[in-house]
Design brief:
11 helices; two-stranded antiparallel sheet; 2 domains; about 350 residues; BirA Bifunctional Protein, domain 2; rod-shaped; 7-stranded mixed beta sheet; alpha+beta; binds phenylalanine; single chain
Length: about 350
């Protein structure tokens, strides 16, 4: 009986100093486990004389139960303390100022290209596409620019070592479209083009155009003018005044350059329009019969118009960007400034 008392006192003292789960488990195994002294003592009860056995048994079981309860209480207390410590360490200051996360956004060229695409989709156009690395046929020959043609010198071309060309205009997509889709058709193709230019504030080796192509029966310059005016008014959110100037592109006949009345000076003449009152905006014209023939279409049956608009220039105009080289500079300060 005395041993029971000593055992209990020691066990409780030890339990009080067990500070974590491993220490608790260790205590439980030693004090209450099957091989622990208490279990051993209970096993030996049967060797005691009848009279003592009963009392010893009651006491031993009561002791075992007290220790088990003490163990539960201690476990509980330690768990509570652990949570309290955790809460103390992990609290959040909900009134602390937020460090703003920088969200990504579309590049201004993408914003305007998508806006124009929407305008064209509203007029029944499809969005077309073609490769950036082209062959001579699609970039030149089928567009009525045969080898040796002086128009090849109008645009300085990058060639790959394998003899392919980086497309110098999106007009190559006209050919890809006419080869693939039977007319009547309407489509626009926004995309990158490349020219080996002397670089300055308005010339870059990589820039963006939007090509347009409409093929149907009896298409005239009047149709073309209507579409282009509607498109420009929608793109610039205002009424526009335009004029057509005769111009030469081998793949259209007649060919024109379309000018917009300068919005900065309303036509009086200023530095934006170089005192002319007009801003050169796009090249256009009626599809040349030779282009139809190159694409195995009957030039007597079909007619159409095409245009190529300088998207980079349009974006510069719209956002007041003074140097085209910003677009490809990769300078995040430029991109972020136009992030909206
Ligand atoms: N491809 C011409 C250019 O890059 C523009 C153009 C397109 C002209 C379609 C007429 C018709 O300058």
């Amino acid at each position: 009986m005395k041993e029971f008392d000593i055992f209990e006192a020691e066990a409780l003292a030890e339990l009080a100093s067990a500070a974590d789960t491993p220490a608790l488990e260790d205590w439980k195994a030693r004090r209450l486990g099957k091989k622990g002294p208490l279990s051993e003592a209970l096993k030996r009860l049967k060797d005691l004389p009848e009279a003592e056995r009963r009392e010893a048994g009651v006491r031993a079981n009561a002791l075992k139960e007290r220790l088990a309860r003490a163990f539960e209480a201690r476990s509980h207390a330690l768990a509570e303390r652990a949570i309290a410590t955790q809460l103390e360490g992990e609290w959040l200051d909900l009134s602390a100022p937020v460090v703003p996360a920088r969200a990504g956004h579309l590049h201004p060229l993408t914003v305007v290209a998508r806006e124009l695409e929407d305008i064209f989709i509203g007029m029944g156009f499809s969005i077309l596409d073609g490769p950036l690395v082209e062959d001579d046929w699609h970039n030149f020959e089928a567009l009525n620019i045969p080898p040796g043609h002086p128009a090849r010198d109008m645009q300085d071309t990058f060639f790959t070592t394998a003899g392919a060309v980086l497309r110098t205009h999106t007009s190559s997509v006209q050919i890809r479209t006419l080869e693939k889709y039977p007319p009547p058709l309407r489509g626009v193709a926004p995309g990158r083009v490349f020219r080996c230019e002397e670089l300055d504030a308005s010339h870059e080796h990589t820039f963006y155009q939007i090509e347009g192509l409409v093929v149907d029966r009896d298409i005239s310059v009047a149709h073309m003018l209507y579409f282009l005016k509607t498109m420009l008014a929608a793109a610039l959110h205002r009424d526009v005044e335009v004029r057509l100037r005769h111009s030469y592109f081998p793949f259209v006949e007649p060919g024109f350059e379309l000018d917009l009345r300068c919005s900065a000076c309303t036509g009086k003449g200023c530095s934006v329009c170089k005192q002319s009152g007009w801003i050169e905006t796009l090249g256009c014209g009626l599809v040349h019969p030779k282009v139809f023939k190159a694409c195995k279409l009957d030039a007597d049956e079909w007619s159409g118009f095409a245009f190529g608009l300088g998207l980079s220039r349009l974006v510069m105009n719209r956002y007041g960007i003074d140097d085209i080289r910003h677009f490809m500079s990769g300078d995040l300060r430029f991109v972020r400034q136009l992030g909206g």
